[in-house]
Amino acid sequence: MSKTLKIYIGLLILLFVGIIAIEFSTPPPINWQKTYNETQKIPYGTFVFYEELNNIFPESKTQDIKVTPYEYFDEYYNWEDSVYLITGTYILIDEYPDLDNTSAQELLDFASHGNDVFIASNYFPDRLLDSLGFYTQNDFSLSGKAEFSFTNPTFERDSISVEKGLSNIYFSEIDTLATTVLGHQKFGDETYTNFIQIPWGNGNFYLHIQPIVFTNYHILKKENSKYAASAMSYLRDDTIYFDSRNKSTKELGDSPLRFVLSQPPLRWAWYLALITTVLFMIFNAKRRQRIVLIKEPLKNTTVDFTKTIGNLYYETKDHDNLIEKKITYFLEYIRRIYYLDTQILDDKFVKNLALKSGKDADDIKKLINQIVYLKAKNNCTEADLLRLNNAIEDFYTT
C-alpha cells in the first residue's frame, strides 16, 4: 500500500469520526412546526391530547380515520333504513384541515343522526358555514397574550393564558337563536367568541377556533390540560373517530428523501454514499489516457451537388432541359439494368421492358408514350416536368 493511499484512508477515517462526533454532541433542534400530529411529541403535535382521550372517555375506544369523512362514514350508512350503523364523536384538530364540502355534508348527516362532531380549526368549509350559520374573521390587530375562558360557571377555574402560536381569528357571526357560546378569548380589553355549540338534527357540532390549545406545548404547560379536558367534557362518552389524515406527510416533510433522512441508519448510509462519491470524483479527476481525437469521415457531396444543380434548373424554368436530362438518365438506366436497346421506343420495347422488369405493361406503355410525346414537344411546362418525374419515380419504386 502506497504512502499516498494511506494518507487518503487516514483522512477519510478522521472525517467520518468527526462527523459522528458532531452528530452525537449536537442536541437536536426543537421542531416548532404546527403538525397537529397525534404521533409526534414535538411542541405543536397532539400526542398528549390523543393519549389522554382514553382517560377523558374511559368507556370509549378511539378509532383512527385515515380517509376522508365521506369515505369513512358513508360505508356505515344503511340506505334501506336510512340510519348509520355506528355512533360516536368525530374529532378533527388541524389548523388548515383538508375538509371539502362533500365530507362536510357527510358530517352534517352523521350529526343529524344523534352523533357529535368536534372540530378545532382556523378555517371551515363553506358547506358548514352556510348550513350552521356562522362566520369567522381575521383581525390582524390581535396579538400578544390571550385569556381563554368558558361561559359555563362550572369551568370558571379552568381558564388559561396562551401566548405562543395563537391565530388572530374568531367567530364574527353566529345564529344566536340556535348557537350556544361555550367559550371566549380575550386579547387586551377585547373579548371574542372562540368556542361554540350548534345543534344539528339529533346531534351537535362543537367548533373551536384555536386548535393550538390542544397541542403538547400548551397542554403540558402549567395546568393548561384542564382547559382541554373541560372542552372535551361537552362530548358524550362514545366511540371517538379521530381524523388522522395527512399526518405522515407533515411528519416527514416534503423532501423526496424525507423517509431516508428520518431514519438514522439510512441517513448515515446516505451521507457516507455522498462522501464516498465526492472522494472518488476528486481522486479520479486526472485523466489516465490522452484525449483521442475524433476524425469525422469525409462527406459524400455528390447528393448535395445534384440537389443544387437540380434546384438551379428548376428555378430558371428551363423545363425542356430538365425533361431532356430526366429522359436521358432514365433510358441510360434501362440500358444498364435491363440491357435493352432504347433507340426505338415501340410496342416491342414496351413488351420486353415489362418482361424483364416484372412491372405492369400498361403502366410502362403510359410512361413510354409520355416520354415519346415530351421528346417531340417544344416549350414544355412545369406540369409536364412533374408528371414525368412522378411517372419515372413510380417505375423505380413500384
Helix percent band: 40-55%
How many helices? The count is 15
- Kindly report how far apart the N and C termini lie: 72 Å
Give the C-level CATH assignment of the largest domain. Answer: Alpha Beta
In terms of quaternary structure, the protein is: single chain
Strand content: 15-25%
The overall pLDDT average reads 86
Strand order of the largest sheet: 1-13-4-5-12-11-10-7-8
Number of strands: 13
Tell the overall outline.
elongated
Helix- and strand-based class?
alpha/beta
- Using the coordinates shown, work out and report the CATH topology of the largest domain: Rossmann fold
* Largest sheet, strands/sense/barrel: 9 strands, mixed
Low-confidence parts:
none
Radius of gyration: 43 Å
Task: Outline the structure in words.
The chain has 398 residues and is of the alpha/beta class. The protein has three domains: 3-28 and 260-283, no CATH class; 47-254, 3-Layer(aba) Sandwich (Rossmann fold); 318-397, no CATH class. It has 15 helices and 13 strands. Strands 1-13-4-5-12-11-10-7-8 form a nine-stranded mixed sheet, covered by helices on one side. A two-stranded antiparallel ribbon has the order 2-3. A two-stranded antiparallel ribbon has the order 6-9. The longest helix is centred in the N-terminal third of the chain and has 23 residues, at 3-25. The two termini are 72 Å apart.
